[in-house]
Amino acid sequence: MDAVVDRAVKPEAAPQRTPVPPFDLVIFGASGDLALRKLFPALAQRNQEGVLPEESRILAVVRKSEDMTGLPEAIGAKLAGSGLSRDRVETFLSRLTMVQVDAVRPETYGRLMQALGESERVRSFYLSTPPDLFIPICENLAAAGILTPTSRVILEKPLGRDLASARAINDAVAAILPEDRTYRIDHYLGKETVQNLLVLRFANTLFERSWSSRDIDNVQITVAETVGLEARAGYYDKAGHLRDMVQNHVLQLLCLFAIEPPNTLEADAVRDEKVRVLKALRPIVGPDVLRATVRGQYGPGMEGGKRVSGYAEELGQASDTETFVSIRCELDTWRWAGVPIYLRTGKRMPQRYSEIAVTFKPVPHSIFGGGGSGSGRLDANRLVIRLQPDDGVQLQLMMKVPGSGKLKIVPRQLDLRYETAFGVRSPDAYERLLTDVIRGDQTLFMRRDEVEQAWAWIDPILAGWQEFYPQPHRYAAGSWGPSQAIGLIERDGRSWADPDFDE
Question: Which fold has domain 189-490?
């Protein structure tokens, strides 16, 4: 059968993309939270759209015998709950092959070899597992002779827990698979708005010419979550929010925002520029963590009119793990020197949203007196690039109120929402990234030096916290984090950009 063309967007609007070739996708950790919430729904959606070739298969690797029958039922219930018809659910489930393998027991990999059989299909192995299983899984796959010359491995974030462990994983994987067949996934890179950052900057003279310290006053990157621990307590309490969110998601957003124009859109050209951004981040070392960072942990609070438990209560024990991080950082480059970049991310916050807010410098002199919404000067222009919940771009401008006798000026937004602007559904990040792996496109995946350079910046912060900042500040669930995060930005005479979803 011929490979099937991706039809995720309208044919007349879609670029010509490389077709998805026939494949076998093996998911380790198939009974885990990520696979159930994200991977299987993404694959089911691609299957419904006709993107996946009919002869392709999805092999779900589970450790427990009860999951052999229980997991398909759980997947079916999840897909049915998302609105997929019964026929579509059954069609997708017919693609699944359940395989019982213990990741650390080499003798069990024969079952996977038997299930895969002999074929010319692309083999991809998604390691939706804790990072300490990455090395044994790769070594056991190689020892069992399961890897083919076209096999790919997908490593879920975070890769390790510090620079040393990340290097150990990268070295071990590199001894088995070359870099061009290793895919380090960060699902934020698959979001449409993140990808559009490159277009916004490099296809629009209006923004590219003003994208520097000459015109930009400050940048704020916020990733706010309303959820608490959920089913991730065992992993999360050992990792914390700096490792779980800042080292990967948040720094990737910073990289794409701040990169210099790559010569081409080839994977390595883009990733070369991202590494340069990471190398330009000014280190935060030792007692500097007290000035440049805020770490917090949510306590009991109110969300949606209901009481929610604090982190320690959910965990079942006292803990010093942070669930909130705010950082003031700078890039030591010609373009960005002197521009403060504020990072903020946390759990149990009032709203779930992710955005990059770019505040431009005010006009040098106002001829309107105090005509703006502020006292004595006009509000600065602000560009908001929103990743979720409503993908889009918002530009705040100063405008005259129609019909006002005396000249009255107020801030108003030009608001572009992807869903209304294009009239098509935006693919989920995992939908895009999973098919990119099969196609062999590494553009939206992290190279090993990216990962290691990010850890090289994070490690001194972790060390500084251990010595100078061991206790996180408490904040109420349902709030915007500890008051110290407000102080972090207000010391510079600025304030956090409040989300505004209703305008």
Answer: Dihydrodipicolinate Reductase; domain 2 (3.30.360)
